Structures are given as structure tokens and as C-alpha cells.
Q: What sequence folds into this?
């Protein structure tokens, strides 16, 4: 029932009070959730900053390794080794629940490989290819880990925004409106009571005059 | 055929031609000059030398470092085909056998490209037709759509029996790596067999090859050891090349060693140590670096499960090439001048490629210089 349709009756007052109690409870819970999510966000932000630094280091290392591999084996040798890849690296996507928010959970699949799994022959290649492959596998793992954290932060930020809007709506609109409605109903009921009392007193006076 | 001990005129003529060709390769001063140039300047400089034709031919399709790499690769293929053409008799057989290395790489690239359905144009760009398999056959192989068709076309190839043995597993997981390893093992076995034919300089050739096998085996053992999961003895047996001076049994034993004393004493027994020590001495300009230090260095890498240092690998190659050239001067009319030329040409191309790629990646000249084999 919209707040404007509530009648200034006892049942209306009880309805408003019930709604108010509910709104205040939700506001308290959402505020706690918001605080929790903010703490989680700070934690994730620190983690992603660390991961990002590592990612940049791993990228630089991978570039250096592929440069050395291209120098020693030529781009042709590097591409021939790349051509040998039999199982392409991928990831599985799941989710974890943090304060009711579904955050992505990415698991690398066949990213880190053994020499056998890489597909190239050990006698036809040299250790620079292994180093370059290792460096790119590390980089790929860091990218997946970074993507998981960034996806989590994005999801968390969206939910923080949504929750903050709800908390603000409760705090600055719904609860004040309910408060106003409660006051209005109470005032109305007081007024009605005073009218009733005045009416009864007037009737009593008239009856006394007649008697 | 001349009687044993007598060198035929054509043999002497061919050896002289290879020695002359050796003198046309880039001298050290040229490398020092190239190191100071930008990539376009390197292209101009190479264009004035024997790479001019290849650069002009490929300038439409490639630019910068890629153009240099493609041009030097094409020049390598042409030089090796020319070497095959001028080598007479058993020199030709040896040259063909030696150049089989490029055929293995080409055949494996074509097989993989066919099975994984990689665009043929992309595969074609990766091939260096420096072996016995000529461009026409390569084009024919590139048109094939199945492994069987490729195998059928390769029936006259030296290493066909290996492909035939494994053709059933063609395309299975890990099959290509096994085929590739087997092809290289057979390649070395055939080269060693050829060395036993009693030709002039064959003893030295065998010694050179056996040392190359030892170095390759040791390097691959380090690669296997630094993997996250320990491999089984069967993998070591499949990966090690037989025929080296160091028996495979010693590599098996080394793989299981985890204490410094045991490792160092076992490694000091190998013939790798003196060459490694000399290479590090030259690389670090440290005359006091001993064989024991070299064994300690390898132990450190082994213990930390790390791969060989690339700069040291290159330094070892330098020492080996110097030794080979010394031998080829001592045996001027043997297979050694041919091998010395082929190896030098291979490393000239590798050097130019390293300079081009290093400059393209913006590496400092001092770092690039460490990868140059002179």
C-alpha cells in the first residue's frame, strides 16, 4: 500500500510503525553489508595493485625472453615451436559468494605445461624456447589471476553502488517519509482525540444545562 | 674413385672452394660496424654484400628485422644448395646428411601445419629449404591434406623409415614431439655412421659430432631437470642422443644426483668441463676460472633447477667453432673445411638475425654482442 493511501487510523499507524521497523532493520543490515563490501574492496584493491605490478614485471620478462629466443632461434624458430602447441591454454569460470555478491572465480586450465605437454620436440629446440614458454605461461597465469580480481572488483563496485543507493534511499527518503507519515497519523489521531474529547465535553455541558 | 690415402683432384678443388667461400663470410670488423647501425642501415649494408638479391626480392613483403631474417634465411638456403652442388662424391653425401637438420624442421612444420590445419601460406613462410628436400617437393608437401599424403611424397627421403614407423600415431597427443626427437636421434646416428666410412678427416668429424652430442645431451638433461615434475628414466632414454663420448648411463646417474660432491665429481669426469671452463674464461675475461669452477657453476644451475645460461651456451659454441676451424686448417683436404664452412655460414646467419632481432627489441648492443658467435 503506498504511503499516501494509509489512513490515519490505529491500524494505519501500526502499519507505518511495522514498515518503519522493517526499513530501519534493512538500513542497518545494508549499512553493515556496505561496510563489509568496502573492507573487501580495499583488500581486493591492494591485492590487484600487487598483482598488476607482478603482471607488468612478468610482461617485461616475457618480452625479454621472447627477444632472446628470437635472437637465438629466429622468429622462425619461435613460431615453429609455437606451431607445435597441441593443447591450447584456457580457463574455467566459476563464482564465489562475498556478502551475497557473485564474484568471478577463474581457474587456469593447461596454462602451465610440462615439456611433454608443450608439444615441441626437445631435440629440435633449445632452452631459450623453454624460457620463453615459461615466461609466457607465467604471464598468462598472471593475466587470468588479474582478470579474476578485476572482475571481482567491478562486480563489487557495482554492488556497492547499488547497495549505497538503497541505503541512501532508505536513509533519506523511505525512513523520513515513514517518520513523517507516522507523525502525521499521530497528529491526526491526537487531533481526532481532542475533537472527540471536546465534543464529549460539549455534550456533557448541554446535558447538564438541560438537566 | 682414388685409392685410400690419395686425394682426388675434384676433392681438393672442392675443399679449396669451400675454404675460399669461408673467406667471403663477414669478418669481425663488419660485425662491429653493423652493431653501431640502425636496422635500415644494416639493410643497406647487407644489400651491398651478398644478401642484396634476397633483400631486393623480399622487400615487397617484409620490412625491418623481419626482412633481414627472411633475407638471411633465404641466402642460407641458397648457399647450402650451392654447397651441395659443388661437393663431389662422399663430400656431397656428408653435406646432404648434415643439411638433413633443415629437412627435419621443414617436414615437422608441414606435418604439424597439416594436422592442425594452419594456413599453408603461414607454414610456407616458416620453412627454410636449406636441406636436400627442394622447393618443388616442399610445395608439393604443402598441398597435401593428410599425413599419409605427405608420407607418400617423402618415400625417397633419408629419414623416411622413422616417419613410416610412427605414421600410425601421426596427430596423436605428443606424437609429433616423439617423431621429431626420433628423427634427430637418427640424424646423428646417420652422421656418425658416415664418419666411420674412413674418409679424410672423418675421425676428427666424429670427435666433433660426439662432443656436440654430449653438449646437447647435457643441455637437455638440465632442461628436463628444471621441469616442475620429475621425469622417468624412459623419458631420459628417449631424449638423450646415443653416440656421444659420455655414455647415457652417466646422464641417467646425473639425473638422480642431489648432492654437490657427487654431482661435481661425476660432472668433472665428462669431456664437457674443459670446454665449458674455457668458454666461461673467455666470456668473463677471467683467466683463473678452473674446471672445478665450471662444475660448480653447472651444479648451481642444477641445484636451483634452472636452465643453462644462454650467454654461456653461445660461448661454448664459439669455442667449439674455433676448435673445428683449427682442425679444418690441419686437415685442409678433408670433410672438415666443408663442415667448417657450413657451420660458419649457419652462425653468420644466426648472428645477423640476432643483431636484427636484438635491435628491433631495443636491447643494448653489449647484450646483443654476447649472442654473437665469431
A:
Amino acid at each position: 500500500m503506498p504511503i499516501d493511501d494509509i489512513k490515519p487510523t490505529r491500524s494505519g499507524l501500526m502499519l507505518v510503525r511495522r514498515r518503519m521497523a522493517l526499513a530501519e532493520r534493512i538500513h542497518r543490515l545494508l549499512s553493515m553489508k556496505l561496510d563489509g563490501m568496502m573492507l573487501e574492496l580495499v583488500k581486493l584493491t591492494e591485492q590487484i595493485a600487487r598483482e598488476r605490478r607482478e603482471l607488468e614485471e612478468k610482461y617485461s620478462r616475457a618480452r625479454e625472453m621472447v627477444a632472446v629466443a628470437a635472437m637465438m632461434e629466429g622468429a622462425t624458430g619461435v613460431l615453429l615451436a609455437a606451431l607445435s602447441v597441441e593443447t591450447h591454454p584456457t580457463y574455467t569460470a566459476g563464482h564465489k559468494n562475498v556478502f551475497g555478491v557473485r564474484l568471478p572465480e577463474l581457474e587456469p586450465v593447461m596454462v602451465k605445461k610440462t615439456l611433454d605437454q608443450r608439444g615441441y620436440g626437445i631435440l629440435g629446440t633449445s632452452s631459450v624456447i623453454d624460457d620463453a614458454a615459461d615466461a609466457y605461461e607465467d604471464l598468462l597465469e598472471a593475466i587470468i589471476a588479474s582478470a579474476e580480481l578485476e572482475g571481482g572488483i567491478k562486480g563489487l563496485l557495482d554492488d556497492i553502488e547499488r547497495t549505497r543507493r538503497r541505503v541512501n534511499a532508505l536513509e533519506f527518503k523511505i525512513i523520513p517519509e515513514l517518520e513523517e507519515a507516522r507523525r502525521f497519523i499521530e497528529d491526526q489521531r491526537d487531533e481526532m482525540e481532542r475533537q472527540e474529547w471536546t465534543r464529549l465535553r460539549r455534550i456533557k455541558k448541554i446535558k447538564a444545562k438541560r438537566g | 674413385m682414388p685409392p685410400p690415402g690419395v686425394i682426388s683432384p675434384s676433392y681438393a678443388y672442392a675443399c679449396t672452394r669451400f675454404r675460399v667461400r669461408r673467406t667471403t663470410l663477414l669478418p669481425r670488423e663488419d660485425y662491429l660496424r653493423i652493431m653501431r647501425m640502425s636496422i635500415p642501415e644494416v639493410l643497406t649494408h647487407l644489400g651491398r654484400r651478398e644478401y642484396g638479391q634476397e633483400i631486393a626480392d623480399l622487400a615487397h613483403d617484409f620490412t625491418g628485422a623481419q626482412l633481414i631474417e627472411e633475407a638471411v634465411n633465404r641466402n642460407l638456403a641458397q648457399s647450402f644448395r650451392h654447397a651441395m652442388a659443388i661437393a663431389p662424391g662422399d663430400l656431397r653425401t656428408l653435406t646432404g646428411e648434415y643439411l638433413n637438420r633443415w629437412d627435419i624442421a621443414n617436414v615437422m612444420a608441414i606435418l604439424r601445419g597439416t594436422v592442425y590445419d594452419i594456413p599453408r601460406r603461414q607454414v610456407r613462410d616458416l620453412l627454410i629449404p636449406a636441406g636436400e628436400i627442394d622447393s618443388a617437393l616442399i610445395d608439393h608437401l604443402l598441398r597435401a591434406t593428410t599425413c599419409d599424403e605427405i608420407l607418400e611424397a617423402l618415400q625417397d627421403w633419408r629419414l623416411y623409415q622413422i616417419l613410416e614407423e610412427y605414421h600410425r600415431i601421426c596427430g596423436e597427443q605428443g606424437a609429433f614431439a616423439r617423431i621429431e626427437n626420433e628423427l634427430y636421434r637418427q640424424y646423428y646416428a646417420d652422421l656418425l655412421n658416415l664418419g666411420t666410412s674412413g674418409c679424410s678427416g672423418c675421425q676428427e668429424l666424429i670427435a666433433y659430432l660426439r662432443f656436440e652430442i654430449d653438449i646437447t645431451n647435457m643441455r637437455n638433461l638440465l632442461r628436463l631437470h628444471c621441469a616442475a615434475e620429475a621425469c622417468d628414466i624412459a623419458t631420459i632414454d628417449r631424449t638423450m642422443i646415443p653416440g656421444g663420448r659420455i655414455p647415457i648411463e652417466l646422464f641417467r646417474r646425473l639425473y638422480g644426483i642431489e648432492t654437490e660432491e657427487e654431482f661435481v665429481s661425476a660432472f668433472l669426469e665428462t669431456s664437457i668441463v674443459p670446454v665449458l671452463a674455457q668458454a666461461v674464461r673467455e666470456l668473463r675475461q677471467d683467466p683463473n676460472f678452473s674446471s672445478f669452477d665450471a662444475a660448480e657453476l653447472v651444479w648451481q644451475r642444477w641445484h636451483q633447477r634452472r636452465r643453462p645460461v644462454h650467454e654461456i651456451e653461445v660461448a661454448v659454441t664459439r669455442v667449439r667453432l674455433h676448435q673445428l676451424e683449427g682442425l679444418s686448417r690441419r686437415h685442409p683436404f678433408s670433410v672438415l673445411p666443408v663442415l667448417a664452412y657450413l657451420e660458419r655460414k649457419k652462425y653468420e646467419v644466426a648472428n645477423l638475425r640476432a643483431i636484427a632481432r636484438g635491435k628491433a627489441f631495443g636491447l643494448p648492443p653489449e647484450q646483443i654482442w654476447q649472442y654473437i658467435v665469431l
Remarks:
- Strands of chain A lie at 90-98, 101-109.
- The interface with chain B takes residues 63-64, 67-68, 70-72, 74-76, 79-80, 83-84, 86-87, 112, 114-124, 126-128, 130-131 of chain A (CB under 8 Å).
- The helical segments of chain A are 10-83, 115-118, 127-210.
